Amino acid sequence: MENEVINEYTKLVWTAIPDKLGTKKQELCQRFLRKCPTPLAIKRLSRIEKNEINEWAPEMLNFFAAIELGKIVTKSHEEIIGHAYSSIELGRKMVDHFQSEEQESVCIACTDIHNEIIDWKILFVGGGCECILYPDKIFQYALRCSAQGIIMIHNHPTGDIHPSKQDESFTRRLERGCEIIGLHLVDFMIVGRDTYHSWREASLVNELKK
To answer: What family does this belong to (predicted)?
Structure first.
């Protein structure tokens, strides 16, 4: 599987460098693949390294522009505003949305009285394993949207969807805050690479076990 990815990557690099360069095309392709032998190596390039590569030839600017366009396309997903979703449907859509992210982020979805999503936004972005949260920012955003409820979606780039002690503590704080200002905490989701954890689903399962 890894060899297939590398072969496809090599073909795309070759295709992205224009044919009009003639023999220089092969030189640039080989030079780039030595510098970035894998797709991951491109992601790890510093700004200085990108600038150095851009100096190889003017066409490299278009090369990196194509990469940025690909990133935008990858992050573009079906709109979720205006639809009523079950936790399963929303969980799957959020898995798709955060699939390629390497930083922890927190997204808040605001719902109306019918639990339909009326607005959503990524409010916080952290590092690879931590994201600092501020409940007041969440409540300010929800009140500006005239929300009746909120759904908090938090991704774990590691893929581990089990709630940490910090996640559980913050959920309790968020629930208490919602009660005080008259909001309903509809759900709290943790999204991994290919699955998710729903606080609402877990609560229902625990109720059935009693």
So the answer is: Belongs to the UPF0758 family.
